Amino acid sequence: MDVVLTVAGIAVIVLVLRDVFHTLWHPAGEGRLSGLVGRGIWAVMHRLPARSRPRRLLMDLAGPLVLATVVLVWAGGVILAWGLVFWPHMPSGFDDTAGPPAVTVGERLVSTVYVSMVGLSTLGIGDIVPTTPWTRLWTAVQAIVGFALLSASMSWVLQVSPALTRRRSLARRLTALAAADRISGDGAGRTVEVPVTTLEDLGQEVGMVHVEMRHYGETYYFRDSVADEALPAAISTGVALADGALRSDDPETRRSGASLRWTLDRFAALLDESYLRTGGSTTEVFAAYAADQDHESTPDGAPRRPGRDRA
Predict the structure, then answer these.
(1) Burial of 283 (0-12, 13-18, 19+ CB in 10 A)
(2) 217 with 35: CB under 8 angstroms?
(3) DSSP letter, residue 305
(4) What is the enclosing helix (H) or strand (E) of 243?
(5) CATH numbers and ranges of domains, the chain
(6) 87 compared with 26, residue with greater pLDDT
(7) 3-class SS at 34?
(8) How far is it, in rounded angstroms, from Cα 271 to Cα 277?
(9) Contact 308, 225 (CB under 8 A)
(10) Distance (Å, rounded) from C-alpha 266 to C-alpha 207?
(11) Are 77 and 109 in contact (CB under 8 A)?
(12) Which of 63, 137, 158, 254 has CB 3.0 to 4.6 Å from 222, enough for a Cys bridge?
């Protein structure tokens, strides 16, 4: 039984560290845990009435809740894993300087969890100390893993924040272009041709958002409550601009429009494959994207209501 517990503990450690690696450092994208937690939280919130104020308020918290839940599961998994490793050696492999050694099952459980939590947090209180080479080694290893887990969690938050900023910046630029298009269009409904540089810049920004969402899939669950900064409400403007450029008489404009449209099509494919599962066209996927995030958009991508959403 001691061997089984130790092997089980090591297996849990490997699973947790593997998920941390795939979430933060693997180029393929999110780990399994963050994906499961994100989809689960998102599904629960979508059970509330559509476009209701409680639903939108909770959806605004979905992204931070996903991050916090995943970090807590990581920490809990490490605590459980080391508890399984330490259990066969409690109390014989430890010296409890604060009182008599744990004897009953309940006392052993409390002492084991306590030692595991202290080791993970690297507090090193010292009231229960390892006395055998095996327990000393595993306590030191747990302290290293605990420090790495804390650093990884902070790194995760710091990496997600710039990705969200760039996504909101792209949304605001698309919203501004939609507004400018309406203002500068002539009375016949024709619009002013967008410069090639603008189309190319938009293609680069959409491509960057695509890469960041693929690598940090949890950013999908960060709903932007300010409509002017919500990409789901503004992304269809990019499609309208690309399609308009494809109808231009200038070959450079058509080329830039084709490049932007290709980038938007690939972004829509990522959204559909990972989150929406509509199997539809780019326009249909972006419409589903807006609906899934409780946003509305006009055909040209301009938000229906500027400022903060209202139920």
Answers:
(1) middle
(2) yes
(3) S
(4) helix 231-246
(5) 2-152 (1.10.287), 162-292 (no CATH)
(6) 87
(7) helix
(8) 8
(9) yes
(10) 9
(11) no
(12) 63
